[in-house]
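pasting input
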Amino acid sequence: MIELTARTPFDGLLPIEAGALRLSEAAPARMTSLAPYRGRDKALSEALKAAHGMAFPAPNRATGREGARAVWFGQRMALLIGPEPDAGLTEFAALTDQSDAWAVARLEGEGAAEALARLAPLDLREGAFKRGHTARTELGHMHASLTRISGESWRIMVFRAFARTLAHEMREAMQSVAARAGV
Amino acid sequence: MRITCPICGPRDRREFYYQGAAVAIERPAPDAGAEVWDDYLHNRDNPAGETRDLWYHESGCAAWIVVTRDTNTHEVMGAELADDAKAERP
């Protein structure tokens, strides 16, 4: 019998540190996409509030808190991160387990937004992209989900198969920012 | 070039995938006849001026949108969800 070992997406790739910046792998969590059936958006939001304590997020926003978060994830879709989804939600939405499909990293430290801005075509400055804001966007040619968790802390998600590419792209961006920080 | 996605807001053009003239949402009835179907499948205008194209917000929210733009001035006049554009058809 072959003994298989479970590996996380960034196993052996992270953490990466450069200057004040640190990129690390987020702790594995249950992730479920919620896609409301036509006309059931409001009912789903109510059920989500009752079961997990957060409303269905508006476009470009995240709701909830550490451990139980809902991140807007595209046209009429949100990603529930943390809890096992309440069975009652299936009445209003299609639920899909995405836990193993994504590589999830956390970027922290001063200059985090500057590092991400090298890879994403978005205005990530604090005035425009605040805590609790999220975006589906392009990150160095990868489809990604970016969420500002707090001032200098970001949640970055890409398809699991892109873990190595993300680590590479982020290392370059972080090193460039760190190298210029002292000038 | 920036396109204002009806869901995400103004975004860089590189987040989008270009599909072509927005005739795809004007699919004729199955019994419309060979000529109408030939036109739908093969014939496209090449306007100097206002044109409507289908774009896919590939790296963003994954919505199909209809963008109205001017091929002379490169002005982007507006964008709406393909779903809505289709619903508005008579």
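fyi The first helix of chain A runs from residue 41 to 52.
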